[in-house]
């Protein structure tokens, strides 16, 4: 079977097109024919050598969608012909995260979705909504579920809340869609006026260009009449967390899901307790939350936003596209 694999050492230059042996599903396992995969910033970091010290060779990409082609003995949760996506965390079914639940993630250390077939436990896949294509469904396991957990599972978003989203990447655009479906008011930031216009077309109520308005926290507070926002989906990391804290209302919720601007920065601890902030780290989510998200997507007819398609052997070029940060929504890999 065709696959893309990092060999020898990490780095985009070491991402190679290879032929691998098509796996056979043993007891309790399923063989999924992948039709599409999808990129996340994590994939770029891993292939480039900044996302974890994983053993090589490694087939990258955490997100995918396809059809179950064969099942091993004893499989009963799913059947041949079911459309499924691999779950990011293969062992996190429900409940709170634990070291064991978070130990097996697809795309590193486990082989990922940049291949024609993937063999997984029957517990590590979940069925997909009929109203989405495989290309659209491939966007759900990481970015979709991260936004859902940040705002719905953990944030308990409700109608009338105000949400601040950073940028127009996959998580933020899913956050926009989920927030609007919940009846919330959305503020979104970007350095591109063109992207902000596209966000408005998707339902964003307010936009802030953080290049022309570098104190975007003050602008967000102004938009909310000085109250501050109820929820912040924090994707920037070190350089944006302080402003996220300033933008949040007393008792507000900040979901920290990314580190695009760095890992370490001084934090105003006094602001955390004086404003009674809840700052929650979000690393994707579990199967139960994924299935809740799928029901929410079906009921609200939410379609993932796809920026571009690339072929499997064009994965390196697709990752370079992601590195350029010009995308709006998700970048999809067509495998079939």
Descriptive labels:
single chain; 336 residues; alpha/beta; Quinone Oxidoreductase, Chain A, domain 1; Rossmann fold; 2 domains; seven-stranded mixed sheet; six-stranded parallel sheet; 15 strands; 27% helix
Give a written overview of the molecule.
By secondary structure, the protein is α/β, with parallel strands linked by helices. The model has no long low-confidence stretch (mean pLDDT 94). Strand 11, helix 7 and strand 12 (248-256) form a beta-alpha-beta unit. The N and C termini lie close together (11 Å). The protein folds into two domains: 2-143 and 285-334, Medium-chain alcohol dehydrogenases, catalytic domain (Quinone Oxidoreductase, Chain A, domain 1, Alpha-Beta Complex), CATH 3.90.180; 155-281, 3-Layer(aba) Sandwich (Rossmann fold). It has helices at residues 41-48, 134-137, 140-153, 170-181, 193-201, 216-223, 241-247, 269-274, 287-300, 315-323; strands at 2-6, 15-19, 29-38, 63-71, 83-86, 117-121, 125-127, 162-166, 185-190, 206-209, 229-234, 248-256, 278-281, 306-311, 330-334. The longest helix is centred in the middle third of the chain and has 14 residues, at 140-153. The strands form three sheets. Strands 3, 4, 5, 6, 7, 14 and 15 form a seven-stranded mixed sheet that branches. A six-stranded parallel sheet has the order 10-9-8-11-12-13, with helices on both faces. Strands 1-2 form a two-stranded antiparallel sheet. The protein is 27% helix and 26% strand. It is globular, with a radius of gyration of 20 Å.
């Amino acid at each position: 079977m065709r696959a893309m694999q990092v060999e020898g050492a990490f780095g985009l230059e070491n991402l190679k097109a290879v032929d691998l042996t098509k796996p056979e599903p043993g007891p309790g396992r399923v063989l999924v024919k992948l039709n599409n995969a999808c990129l996340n910033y994590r994939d770029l970091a891993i292939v480039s050598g900044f996302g974890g010290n994983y053993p090589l060779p490694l087939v990258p990409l955490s997100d995918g969608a396809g059809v179950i082609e064969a099942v091993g003995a004893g499989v009963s949760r799913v059947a041949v012909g079911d459309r499924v996506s691999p779950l990011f965390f293969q062992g996190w079914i429900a409940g709170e995260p634990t070291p064991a639940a978070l130990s097996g993630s697809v795309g590193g250390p486990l082989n990922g979705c940049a291949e024609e077939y993937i063999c997984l436990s029957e517990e590590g896949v979940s069925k997909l909504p009929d109203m989405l294509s495989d290309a659209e469904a491939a966007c759900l396991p990481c970015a979709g579920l991260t936004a859902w957990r940040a705002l719905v599972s953990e944030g308990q978003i409700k109608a009338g809340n105000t949400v601040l989203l950073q940028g127009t990447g996959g998580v933020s655009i899913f956050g926009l869609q989920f927030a609007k479906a919940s009846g919330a008011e959305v503020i979104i930031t970007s350095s591109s006026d063109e992207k902000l216009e596209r966000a408005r077309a998707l339902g964003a109520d307010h936009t802030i260009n953080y290049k022309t308005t570098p104190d975007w926290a003050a602008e967000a507070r102004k938009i909310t009449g000085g109250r501050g926002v109820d929820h912040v989906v924090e994707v920037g990391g070190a350089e944006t967390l302080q402003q996220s804290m300033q933008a949040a209302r007393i008792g507000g919720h900040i979901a920290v899901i990314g580190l695009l601007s760095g890992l370490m920065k001084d934090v105003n601890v006094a602001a955390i307790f004086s404003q009674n902030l809840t700052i929650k780290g979000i690393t994707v989510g579990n199967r139960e939350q994924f299935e809740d998200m799928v029901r929410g997507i079906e009921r609200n007819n939410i379609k993932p936003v796809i920026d571009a398609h690339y072929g499997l052997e064009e994965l390196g070029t697709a990752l370079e596209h992601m590195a350029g940060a010009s995308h709006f929504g998700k970048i999809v890999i067509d495998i079939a």
